TrEMBL record:
<keyword id="KW-0326">Glycosidase</keyword>
<dbReference type="GO" id="GO:0006298">
    <property type="term" value="P:mismatch repair"/>
</dbReference>
<dbReference type="InterPro" id="IPR003265">
    <property type="entry name" value="HhH-GPD_domain"/>
</dbReference>
<keyword id="KW-0378">Hydrolase</keyword>
<comment type="similarity">
    <text>Belongs to the Nth/MutY family.</text>
</comment>
<keyword id="KW-0004">4Fe-4S</keyword>
<dbReference type="Pfam" id="PF14815">
    <property type="entry name" value="NUDIX_4"/>
</dbReference>
<dbReference type="GO" id="GO:0000701">
    <property type="term" value="F:purine-specific mismatch base pair DNA N-glycosylase activity"/>
</dbReference>
<dbReference type="Pfam" id="PF00633">
    <property type="entry name" value="HHH"/>
</dbReference>
<dbReference type="GO" id="GO:0046872">
    <property type="term" value="F:metal ion binding"/>
</dbReference>
<keyword id="KW-0479">Metal-binding</keyword>
<keyword id="KW-0411">Iron-sulfur</keyword>
<dbReference type="InterPro" id="IPR029119">
    <property type="entry name" value="MutY_C"/>
</dbReference>
<dbReference type="GO" id="GO:0035485">
    <property type="term" value="F:adenine/guanine mispair binding"/>
</dbReference>
<comment type="function">
    <text>Adenine glycosylase active on G-A mispairs. MutY also corrects error-prone DNA synthesis past GO lesions which are due to the oxidatively damaged form of guanine: 7,8-dihydro-8-oxoguanine (8-oxo-dGTP).</text>
</comment>
<keyword id="KW-0227">DNA damage</keyword>
<feature type="domain" description="HhH-GPD">
    <location>
        <begin position="35"/>
        <end position="186"/>
    </location>
</feature>
Amino acid sequence: MSFSHKILDWYHTHKRELPWRETRDPYKIWLSEIMLQQTRVAQGMPYYHRFLEAFPMVHDLAEAQEEKVLKLWQGLGYYSRARNLHATAKMVVEQFGGKFPHTYKELKSLKGVGDYTASAIASFCFDVPEPVVDGNVYRVLARYFGVDLPINSPSGIKYFKELAREVMDAEQIRDYNQGIMEFGAIQCAPKKPYCLLCPLNEGCVALKENKVDSLPIKNNKTKVRVRHFNYLVYLDIHNNTLLEQRKGKGIWQNLYQFPLVESEKEMNPDEMEHYLKSEGNPQLLDMAIPYNPDPIIHKLSHQHLHTKFWIVKTSDILEEGTAWEEVTQFPVPVLIADFIRTLKI
DNA sequence: AATCCGGGGGC
DNA sequence: GCCCCAGGATT
């Protein structure tokens, strides 16, 4: 039996029932695919249901305020996905008459839709014979066929895409694509796959050559940048505080946060007092009290954010401020949301 | 080709 | 602590 038929056989026996597998509605498929980029099914699932409840159709999403989209996306990370999601919904409504395009090329022109996602939507919704190559597929192909090219090098990416196309089942592309990804997620898992009962163990090169633990090969370890964040949590006598929206490039674009002072190293109360005076803030007579004397280390893929929250009880009236009871309505990073949750006023 | 972009879970 | 997760965009 061929590679693809073994995958299909395994899939029909072992597949999980997932909501986006019960439909061919491109809106739902697209939504699930964007959410599942670099995200586990279990993490994305509740977001998928909340989005469909809030935005049943692509028109609803297109008409929404970006802030509402970001708020629903809060906690899922990679927030450019949410901004691109919103932009693409508008694009589909305005340029494609509310219908998702059917071709790989047109799908790939949508914001946030790359090679993998375009192939996924085209094959799942419209039976277009395009192979998907995600992290699961890289692992299955690298092990079964013994490919030692780095999966994140241009030559490796090209090679795996061509290999995926050669071994796919074009006649059953929907189930085959779902199947090889599911096989990678469940059977050919990253760590300690149970090769003894794998239906593909007979022809598996990695198993034969004892390379299961070393394939696939991936280079370029990410190096982490350490940053020091100081958030100024202003509170006036009415319990109003100040929020600002992050603009420009970098992390958390368009999300909200407290006024931020970034420093080269950890700041102590004297340094903070000096800073506030030097900035000529009107609350120079007020005190900034560290809420957490030991910095919270919030870890992102490329950054470790050593963060102190400073409570600044000001005698000013924050006319432009936000009532504390309303801060939970803004889209904020998890770092901020966790703090808001723990602070008792 | 290299880097950036989140947060969570498993071991 | 390290790796991975239904990747994509930018430089």
